[in-house]
Amino acid sequence: MATRAEGERQIGLSAEPLDVDALVQAVRTDAHGAVVTFLGVTRETSPDDPRPVAALEYEAYPLAAIAEMEAIAREAEATYGPLGIAMVHRTGVVALGEPSVVVVVASPHRAHAFDACRFAIDALKARAAIWKKELYADGGGAWVPNTGS
């Protein structure tokens, strides 16, 4: 896994399954009264193609993706106050039902945790150098925009 951890921040890419509990523990402290977790999981249908999805495949440019994810974390902290934040995205093939991305935000207050988590996942999908291919049950596949739908 390519990650960079800073205090209560863990940012990275991983070819291995994501450990949600470990990410929660990496950012949660006794100063945080709220912990919000977002899991993006591989679903069985695509919003743009009627064929059943068997898996997703992700490719990333690690240096650019991690740098952008770090920038997103800094922006979230600047906007929503002191946070613990983890953002880790899978690379390679991700089976149905498995998490492709995990964002965890810990904050003293729930409103900031929810808002920062939503900001982080939306910005990650829009800005990080990560590309998604849908692998269909019929053996086909297509690269699709990683828009967060």
What structural category characterises the helix and strand content? alpha+beta
What string, H for helix and E for strand, traces the elements in order? EEHEEHEEEHEE
What's the CATH H-level homologous superfamily?
Molybdopterin biosynthesis MoaE subunit
Oligomeric category = single chain
Named CATH architecture: Alpha-Beta Complex
End-to-end C-alpha gap? 26 Å
**Main sheet record:** 5 strands, mixed
The CATH class is identified as Alpha Beta
Low-confidence segments, given as residue ranges, are none
Description:
Helix 2 runs antiparallel to helix 3. The radius of gyration is 15 Å and the shape is elongated. The strands form 2 sheets. It has a 5-stranded mixed sheet, with helices on both faces. The chain has a 4-stranded antiparallel sheet with strand order 6-4-8-9. The mean pLDDT is 93. It is built from 3 helices and 9 strands; from the N terminus they run E-E-H-E-E-H-E-E-E-H-E-E. It is α+β, with helices and mostly antiparallel strands. The chain has helices at residues 20-27, 62-80, 110-127; strands at 2-6, 9-14, 34-41, 53-60, 84-90, 92-95, 99-107, 130-136, 141-144. A hairpin with a 4-residue loop joins strand 8 and strand 9 (141-144). It is 30% helix and 39% strand. It has one domain: Molybdopterin biosynthesis MoaE subunit (Aldehyde Oxidoreductase, domain 3).
